[in-house]
Amino acid sequence: MKALKLAELLRDYDGKWVALNRARTQVLASARSLDEVLRAADKIKSEKPIISYVSPLDLEFVG
Amino acid sequence: MKFPYQERPRSPSPAFPSAKSYLVPFIPIVVRNGSKQIEVDALVDSGASGCLFPGMLGIALGLDIYKGPTQAITGLGNKEVTAHFHTIRLKLGEEEWQVYAGFSFDYLGATGLLGQRGFFDNFRVIFDYKKECVMVNKRSLSQKLLTLVGQ
Domain containing B69: what range? Predict the structure, then answer.
């Protein structure tokens, strides 16, 4: 199994919240706040998107 | 269940001058409260003591966040965040279970953290960085009992 290649798809969404299609090939909506992206995702009728946060590109995350 | 790691973007830094991406064990999980549910990418985080989600996600699920009992939480850098705890349900594949999870309006750096209490106590987790996947298997009742007696 190989990792899902999302680096290029998400590169322009630095520090944003995104709604991804289920195949994870498209960003269906994006916003600076989770609230906004959830509202945008609610309007998407074609499929139930997956909500995700894109960490600032200059920060390494340690959970 | 087997989930691929996600390759996420990053920018180069003095320490990692050629880095353009990194691998992280995010898995898709459904967070549910009653009839409301939202699917998010959550970090499988063995270093987290419990499960934690953004406060705004809880509001969208209809939770009265501030009514939940609080717990101060810390990680790196001695920064403290406050989480309000609520009982919700999580769904992963066909598995669904109840979790007492924290919701915080402080910066979490992720759409969700799946930690020891609420996730690792329900699943056996194997991280395989080289194979770029994380394996998550529901604990059977007998495994839970063996864990309880320290076997």
Answer: 2-148
Q: Is the CB of A51 inside 8 Å of chain B's CB atoms?
A: yes
Q: How far is A63 from chain B (nearest CA, A)?
A: 6
| Total tally of structural domains belonging to chain B | 1
**B130: distance to nearest CA of chain A, Å?**
9
**pLDDT of res. B77:** 75
> B45: which chain A residues are within 8 Å (Cβ-Cβ)?
63
Instruction: Give the one of B22, B75, B132 whose C-beta lies nearest to A1's C-beta.
Output: B132
ipTM: 0.94
pLDDT greater than 70 at residue A24: yes
Q: What angle is formed at CA B58 by the lines to CA B49 and CA A51, rounded to 5 degrees?
A: 90
Three-class SS state of B76: helix
**pTM of the predicted structure, to 2 decimals:** 0.91
Q: What is the CATH number of the domain that holds B38?
A: 2.40.70.10
Mean pLDDT of B99-124: 94
d(CA B120, CA B106): 24
